[in-house]
Design a protein that fits this description.
Strand content: over 45%
Helix content: under 10%
CATH class of the domain at 277-413: Mainly Beta
CATH architecture of the domain at 277-413: Sandwich
CATH superfamily of the domain at 277-413: Lipopolysaccharide (LPS) transport protein A like domain
Radius of gyration: 31 Å
Low-confidence stretches: 1-25, 423-428
Mean pLDDT: 82
Shape: rod-shaped
CATH topology of the domain at 277-413: lipopolysaccharide transport protein A fold
Structural class: mainly beta
């Protein structure tokens, strides 16, 4: 994911307004190519020199133009005023005021700055660069545009480490990847293909519409979301208070690891997955998908599926549990289920919407078919043991018919709204 700004743009900005010396070579001469007039005052060693009208300096392949420049010899500072333009090759920097302090080794553009290079544009209300630490900082209403769009309060680029970080209401939009992110902090190391979002991190990614299906949106939120390159695969990790939703499926867990290319997502730390009126709980839940479509969900370790299938009697919950529970999904709808290893089930029965008690069964394997999200057929295989509880015994005591693994959560998540203008307007 290409995010913040082109490194070459920042590097050129630092050379242009920061230091008059190549990093590994001798100082380059600064040549005054033109000024309508030059006014000096005070002693040579401590006075000031003012350059007025169509001022043009050059240093190597860097050119600086402005309407007015003042060199304060005693303060060891230079102020460039009005229509300040810095160019180097295809890069162009524009600001109304640039000040360089030779004592602090810091150059500052305090009244706005715009950098353009190779189709990329970075703008902010102020920017500073240290020729000692080689760090450039864009502050206040930062906008970076290339193949992506980024908004932030502050953007920091470390020239030596080649890393960027953004803080404060960070919004990133990548239309090519159909992706929007929002966080309080974002860090990127492009050489390691590493990206970290932290602080109420949120991601929206929508699938491409097809001839038969409209686009839907995957939503992911967590305290921290990380993207990294491992070999040829891109791995995504989400940590702490993880929430994920898509169509009729939602999930919560403490941590998530996803390999999108392999179509595999692993949920850890008390995970739960909602699908229609059902919940899957397990020690670990693994979701599989192809081309952005969820195809199966596997619960491992004391897994249980709980289905609230009777809207008139919400306490009557069908339950199927086992050491491994697998859900097969087609077009975001549950089609079948299989429970393996110490499988157990409690299914409530009804005839013409009239309750008919329940069946409690244990076996080696349980297979279930669904139609339109509703249980239709159940098959028990191997070592079957069962019992029927008639309606007079069950009525009023539904909450006592629970398997040992039973859990039911009321905190099904919903996707948050996309970031508001101006960011969202750029998406349209």
């Amino acid at each position: 994911m290409r995010l913040f700004l082109l490194s070459c743009a920042i590097l050129t900005w630092s050379l242009a307004v920061g230091t008059a010396q190549e990093r590994d070579g001798p100082a380059l001469p600064i040549i005054l190519e033109h000024a309508d007039s030059i006014v000096g005052s005070g002693p040579i060693e401590s006075g000031t020199r003012e350059f007025l009208g169509h001022v043009r300096f050059s240093q190597g392949n860097v050119t600086v133009e402005c309407d007015r420049a003042i060199h304060n010899v005693s303060a060891n500072s230079v102020d460039l005023y009005t229509n300040v333009n810095v160019t180097q090759g295809g890069l162009h920097l524009k600001a109304p005021l640039v000040t360089y302090n030779g004592n602090t080794n810091i150059a500052v553009a305090s009244r706005g700055v715009v950098v353009r290079d190779k189709g990329a544009t970075i703008q902010a209300r102020s920017a500073s660069y240290s020729t000692v630490s080689h760090i450039v900082v864009f502050r206040d209403s930062v906008v970076a545009r290339d193949s992506t769009r980024l908004w932030a309060d502050t953007l920091v680029y470390d020239r030596d480490e080649d890393t960027t970080s953004a803080r404060g209401s960070v919004v990133i939009i990548d239309t090519a990847e159909r992706l929007v992110t929002r966080s309080s902090y974002a860090f990127r190391n492009p050489s390691e293909q590493y990206l970290r979002l932290r602080g109420d991190a949120q991601v929206w990614q929508w699938s491409a519409p097809t001839a038969t299906e409209s686009s839907d949106t995957l939503y992911l939120s967590a305290d921290e979301i990380v993207s990294m390159q491992t070999g040829v695969a891109t791995i995504y990790q989400a940590r702490w208070h993880v929430v994920m939703t898509r169509a009729s499926v939602a999930a919560r867990c403490d941590s998530l690891v996803a390999d999108r290319a392999a179509g595999r997502s692993e949920l850890y730390g008390t995970p739960v997955v909602w699908a229609d009126s059902m919940q899957l709980h397990a020690d670990t839940i693994i979701a599989y998908g192809e081309e952005d479509a969820l195809t199966s969900v596997v619960g491992r370790g004391w897994a249980i599926l709980v289905a609230q299938t009777d809207s008139l009697r919400p306490d009557r919950m069908d339950q199927i549990a086992g050491q491994r529970v697998t859900l097969s999904i087609e077009h975001d709808t549950l089609r079948s289920l299989e429970a393996l290893g110490d499988a157990q089930s409690i299914t409530f029965r009804a005839e013409d919407q009239r309750p008919e008690g329940l069946a409690k069964v244990a076996s080696d394997t349980i297979r279930v078919l669904f139609e339109k999200g509703q249980l239709t057929d159940v098959v028990w295989l191997g070592g079957v043991e069962g019992e029927h509880h008639p309606e007079p015994v069950v009525a009023g005591r539904e909450d006592t018919y629970r398997l040992p693994q039973f859990r039911w959560r009321m905190d099904r998540p919903k996707a948050n709204a996309l970031p508001t203008a101006p960011a969202f307007r750029q998406l349209k």
